[in-house]
Amino acid sequence: NYISSAGTLTAQTANNKGLHLYNAGLRAATEVGGFGIKGDVELNGGSSESEANFTGLTDKTIKNKGYAYLVGVSYKLNPVKLSLDYAMGSGDSSSTDNKNNGFANALSNVQHYTFVYDYRVATAQGSTLTGLTNTRYIKLGANGDITKDLNVDLNLYLLSAVKKKAITVGQTSDITGTASTKGDSKKVGRELDAKITYKLDKNLVYFVEGGYLWTGDFFKNITASAKDPDDAYAVRHGITLSF
Description:
By secondary structure, this protein is mostly beta strands. It is built from one helix and 14 strands, in the order βββββββαβββββββ. Strands 3, 4, 5, 6, 7, 8, 9, 12, 13 and 14 form a ten-stranded mixed sheet that branches.
């Protein structure tokens, strides 16, 4: 078995040898006098052979060549820490060539940045849990302790696609170069996330968290009805026990 570029576990066959991916990254962070700065650069490569979405190609070897980066600053103004981040992951504009320029990931079903867009809906890559692939964001954040036991974390994201989508009416979003209808917007939308935690005991924390995604024009016209996209939201609560 192998993990495909879609993140699924698939049986290996003679005509489908799976994804061979490598990633090299460099990260740095420092904080002086309440002012913090951080950076992250990721480069990946490798190849995938004879995957289903490339069966129309003569050469069944697809070369991966993606990248992603993040820069961020923060400032602690007691009791609140303010932050500003910018991040981008490359996208792929064509599925008819032998190159995949999107930033490839093999991610589990957990939140990585946004609570709704990244974690629960189809991203600009066309499926869920694709990480930063074909996505850029600006994040404005504020985190602070209201009391000794109560913490509030707020984050506003401005989201956009790196590559416009190309779609065939009646299909879901797909990043290709051959579809009959080309998307005309990179505006994914805006998302506001919030998380409130309350310390019940030394190792016991109660939390409520949620997010609201105001969807942008990137998601328009992806169905035969050409219906404007609905906004998306999610809320959950729970208890965390650490030991």
